[in-house]
Amino acid sequence: MRLSNTPAIALLSAVAMLASSVPVVAFQGGDEFEKEPILYSTSTPRNRVEALKIAIESGNKTIRNSPRFGYLPDLLNALEVPDESQTLVFSKTSLQMRRISPRTPRAIYFSDDVYIGFCQSGDVLEISAVDPELGTVFYTVDQHTPDQPIIQRQTESCLVCHSSSRMEGVPGHIIRSLYVDAGGQPLLSAGSRTVDHTTPVKDRWGGWYVTGTHGAQTHLGNLVIRDRDVVEPVDNSEGQNVTDLKFRINPDRYLSPHSDIVALMVLEHQVLVHNRITKASFETRQALAYDEMMRKMMDKPEGELLENTTRRIQTVSERLVDALLFVNEAKLTEPFRGTSGYAEQFVGLGPRDSQGRSLRDLDLSTRMLKYPCSYLIYSEAFDQLPKASKDCVLRKLWDVLSGTDVSEKYSHLSPDDRRAIREILLQTKSDLPDDWKS
Length: 438
Known about the structure:
The protein is α+β, with helices and mostly antiparallel strands and 438 residues long. The protein has ten helices and nine strands. A hairpin with a 3-residue loop joins strand 2 (106-110) and strand 3 (114-118). Helix 4 (261-298) runs antiparallel to helix 5 and helix 5 packs across helix 8. The radius of gyration is 22 Å and the shape is globular. Residues 1-30 have low confidence and may be disordered.
């Protein structure tokens, strides 16, 4: 088996927060979000990390520096990011690449709206936050300041890699699976793959550590290529169903000894949805601004949108719906079980309906979620979508969940799935249109 070949021009990042020294070519249209109406780099962020930054600078919040991990533990606590979410990536594909190897992987921690990258003896923590107006906003925290952390926003250096077509052409994230040698260098000649919930499990997690059980279903995690060339098929039998990394890393150098398989699955899903939410927001705002400009040029009164504007909004909105509803999700053929307790932590966040059901309930036998609709529908980023896009998304969701839309791509949703998701949302999401309630 061989991963599909792709040009080695993008950051081969595992949600890397900043620019890599790997040669890159930025997405040609990426600078559109630096213009009106987005003004990405010059606009003031409004997100969880920015709020913490303001609280620290005003003296209203104190973050302690620990001897072993610097500001990491206190920042995770302040930002409500669980230790159990830890995943470990050992490919040299981020800013602090000299710190990264199979013996010293980079740790990534995440919640619904924050991602934090940590390297052993690293100079900085790498943080990104989901921002309702600006998509993904990037920050660094100097690990060596003695008193309080200095949270600094980053723009140009991160956007070189984090606004490519692989991220919908907006500020976002990317997860890659690729072969890695004993020094942590990616073997680009063997190809690489962008990973989300549609990627077959057999092609996931190259360059990552994976702890958990998954039966006979295989993946590329925990694999280090000892030769200069990748000889296929690659034997990764020793990398399957690994529950202990102590012979691969020093677990005492991390907050957790795990790189949980369930956390990896959730991470891959929500990166895709976050990118799609940002794309829907940016594209809609840009389309509406263009529509207004064209109307003025043509001396047309305000009213119904131009056909092209409506089509642009519908296209990005329906792509978001597809991500929310796990269209083309790769099937699981064996039960998956994590090792860190992340699954229990994730499920416990709710919310739940009167029958005790939640969109966070995990399946992990045939698919990721028991009720395949993304929990990110509750996020502030989703709630703050432009009205034209949000209305379009909710209208499409209703058509699918009510059974009006029976397109083949939604055939993975059984009538029971559609009814359950609809009932859960009606009881747990307060801003649904009246059409849903009637």
